[in-house]
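call fold(seq) -> tokens
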Amino acid sequence: MVYRGVMADNVVQFGLPFLATVLFMCALRPAARGVGLIDKPGGRKMHVGDVPVIGGLAMTGGFIIGSLYSHPSIVGFAFFIAGLLMLVLIGALDDRYDLPASVRFLAQICAALLTVGGAGVVVNDIGRPFFGELVELGWLSVPFSVALILTAINAFNMFDGSDGVAGAQALVALVFLGFSCVLAEALDYVPMIVTLMGCIVGFLVFNWPSKRTQKVRAFMGDAGSTMLGFTLAWISIEVSQGPARAVSPAAILWIFALPVFDLFSSMVRRIAQGYSPFHGDSEHLHHVLRRMGLSSRQVAQVVLASAAICAAIGVSASIFGVNDGWLFLLWCVCGVVYHLIFGTSLVLSRPSSGKVEAELASGRSFLPWK
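ret:
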């Protein structure tokens, strides 16, 4: 009877935000053009036609409605909602008016400070990544936690550049985080995880690349990508800290390997080219995969499969007690390999920026293999 009750709760915790998100997507779509939440093709934006940018608002609405039923008494939940709403509001304004980077960054810092200072969600240790004792951060825990949250937000923001990619990565991460919590019997965050999964699946109904979604296609925008990065950072910190942690910090790196690799590879590449690390370009993972001739759907499928493999490596190693040092070392090696393949010209030929835009716009593929 207890098992049936838990299953019934999980169905509602998933189904309510799913239906609410779908409802918000349908309701916001007609209003998107009137308020200017439309993404038009041009420049580095290679999609076809005007697309509503309403996914972030819809997922946030679905999450808040779902959380009224599903979230347990999580300490600091009010601070989480405050930070979330701030990021979504600024993200939606950025989707509409293209705000200065300084305004977006200030909002991200405020959300991170609400998390760390208000809710007390802090990274106190990073496990045992150097094969020795537990590495406690001490006074560095606050700045490290703020930096981690900012990294997560911007990693998802940069990773969201092709239909289904950011949503697929977030969904995979939540599945493995939830699985780890269930195995460790750390169930406090399972309802929150299931609720967010329902929101993402509801959004992917309109964003997963397929012929069926062409007429109702929508993007999550900065509002959605920053919302996902912030929420996943919050959950990841909570489930990876303390003596009763559900998963090791090293395993968390594997769960989010792709967006983190893509972020730092992009920054290193831009610095090497003499640009600002935040300079926009068309050299992210999804751009490279498209130039290899993959369709939008194939790109999303590759990301989904790769994210699942990376997360499975991290979570399996954590469950079977693999030393954090080996897990962290292998993650670093994979990060270097990723950069050599996707961030340099050593493996893949990199066309000029003008040719990249022309190839993507025309739909023709540029053969990248040397």
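The chain has one domain: 2-362.
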